[in-house]
Amino acid sequence: MKKNKxxxxxxxxxxxxxxxxxxxxxxxxxxxxxxxNSMGDVLQDLSNESFDQIKSKYIDNLNVVEEYxxxxxxxxxxxxxxxxxxxxxxxxDLKWDYPAVISNAIIDIDRNxxxxxxxIFKQLExxxxxxxxxxxxxxxxxxxxxxxxxxxxxxxxxxxxxxxxHDNSIKNEDFLSLxxxxxxxxxxxxxxxxxxxxxxxxxxxxIISTKNRISSQSDCGNICPANFNTSLGFxxxxxxxxxxxxRKISIDxxxxxxxxxxxxxxxxxxxxxLLKDVSDRSDFKEVYYLNKDQIEVCKECEFRYICIDCRxxxxxxxxxxxxxxxxxxDPYTCQGFN
Amino acid sequence: MLSMKILIVSENGDSITERIIDWLLHYNSExxxxxxxxxxxxxxxxxxxxxxxSTILVVDGEEVYIEEIGSYFWRRGFINYSFENFxxxxxxxxxxxFDMEVSKHLSREKEVLIKNIYFQLxxxxxxxxxxxxxxxxxxxxxxxxxxxxxxxxxxxxxxxKKRLIEFKKINGDIISKPMHSSFTxxxxxxxxxxxxxxxxxxxxxxxxxxxxxxxxxxEKIRKKYxxxxxxxxxxxYSMAIFSxxxxxxxxxxxxxNKVKPNRMVPYILPTDIELKICKLMNYLELDNGSxxxxxxxxxxxVFLEVNxxxxxxxxxxxxxxxxxxxxAQMLMSN
Lengths: 338, 334
Fold this sequence. Notes:
The complex is a heterodimer.
Chain A: E1 6-9, E2 13-17, E3 21-26, E4 31-36, H1 37-48, H2 51-54, H3 62-74, E5 78-81, E6 104-109, H4 117-127, E7 131-136, H5 142-149, E8 159-165, H6 172-181, E9 185-191, E10 197-202, E11 205-209, H7 232-240, E12 248-251, E13 257-258, H8 275-280, H9 282-286
Chain B: E1 5-10, H1 15-26, E2 31-35, E3 41-48, E4 53-59, E5 62-65, E6 69-74, H2 96-122, E7 126-128, H3 138-147, E8 155-160, H4 161-171, E9 174-177, E10 183-186, E11 192-195, E12 198-200, H5 202-206, E13 211-219, E14 225-232, E15 235-242, E16 263-267, H6 271-283, E17 288-295, E18 301-307, H7 313-316, H8 323-332
Parallel strand pairs in B: 1-2, 1-6, 6-7
Antiparallel strand pairs in B: 3-4, 4-5, 8-13, 9-12, 9-13, 10-11, 14-15, 14-17, 15-16, 17-18
């Protein structure tokens, strides 16, 4: 410990205060640390005055202060510097921006769907969409899925995520060769399988199976620590935008256009409406700006900037600002996540 | 008035260039992207007369009039012309020496043509980067940095063991680094050779002959932290790198540690240092580039080197500076 220096958190280690406890979100190393709220006050003081100078304030708890300092040092979350150097280390500017009107899309498909995929993909590309999640709610063979994805050939779409139904005719190797043939596929989730399993997790590609029965769009919106995202991109987006709906456009099983298939509002059908026209509508974009700071309960939760949101399944369906119903965490008691 | 287009020259698969183009397309700009070895460039004509001038290239099948280009960004890479019908390296008569001389002459003819396109492009007012001016001489840069008042590490370039021993005696810990650029030769998947920055100790010196291949040595500066500064037309985007905790990256932060990456955070330069950097970049006639510096425990700012074609994504992303967006906006302001 440097007695005549101040302790600063690195700009990419951000203290987020909750009700009963806080997090320090390490946006560079993509992890978060659970810490007591009092650490925030101590760090605030230590960033302005040296340890010697604040000793008298914390005279009854010096060992706690020392513990906090040790924690910060061990996890490399902060550094010691002279007071005169503080001005050289600004806070991280958390603005978020994106060079496109639409960044991601969901396409839901079942046996009755009749989507004009070629047109959909071309339109999404010209809107700047980078990621598409395709959810197959009936069984589709890998050949059928591949023939749809072949229409992405030559387009700028960067990544595809697939949700598909298990069948005994498909083996693990078949998924691996699909991913090899179509390297745009970054994640495959196979549902209705015997058990939860990780089939492959390498080179940025994830293939997992789940025994969950997924039959429709209502099986979405799960809020849990497994879905936390502690990256700079996500954290900065969460400051201003809804982390699920921002710049997202969806096509439901009937081809109807919407922000998300689990929300009720529809904006026309893909067969007679252009994606661009829908995404330009101000009412379509309104929901982009409903970020965690406006959601009840969430706005006080220590995980609010690393947690995905869901506006479709609400704890109070009459209140569009209410907490997601599928979140079991209570930030007022710290109970709910295992 | 013809609509003004934006021309960008880069290497294949340069992701930051792709990102800049994403922004430009989002703003509905017309972009011509010449991608080093991927784009097919044909030379059509250049007309110079009293009445008018015009230069036409054919880029991937499309005619491009140089006079239509309002902004030009040379990121990296070459404009590789295809002189398909002129396979002049294979001039073959029975006189080998004649063939060789003719080939050399035709190469020089081609060179004039190509260089002139770069001259024309670099005459465009709204431009960023320069192919003709990117090869910085590291020794010259150190001298110029010293001229503008920046501190530099004590440096010796020598072939002489005696001088090296003397230099080490005076400076204590010393390092050696390549004079041109870092070098790596990959022999196999598990073996490669490289010439990077390394520490030089007494045993290393003992092993040398009395006279050796010229090499550059510098005093090793103890760093509190390093700075990587991206200079863009008078503005410094700075980042501090804390690598002291990590043995692997202690000498050169590019010896990356993927498991526990060094801390990279935004930084604001003291005004006098910023002014000196600007002065240096103007002196070197560079409108953009990456500058490496070390901040010592005595709070001295020591200049190490400048890289006119460095990866500025590594400053822009961790610090959330959106430099790619700023460059796109610069290129759009015709």
